Amino acid sequence: MSVRIVAAHKIMETLEIYWVLARIMVPITIMTELLSRWGVIEAVAPAFAPAMSLVGLPAELGLAWLSGMLVGIWGAVPLIFVLVPVGSLSVADITVFSALLLFAHGLPIEQKIIQKAGPGIITTTLLRVLGGVFYAFLLHRLLSATGWLASPVNPTWIPISATPDWTGFFVGLLETMVSMLVILLVLSFGLEVLRITGLLKLIMKALMPVLRLAGIRGEAGHFTAVGLFLGISYGGGLLIREAWSGSVSPRQVFVSCVFMGFAHSVIEDTLIVVALGADLGIVLGGRIAFAVVATAAVARFLRTVSDETFFTWAFRAPNPQAVSR
Question: Rounded to an integer, what distance in angstroms lies between the CA atom of residue 144 and that of residue 297?
Answer without folding.
Answer: 27
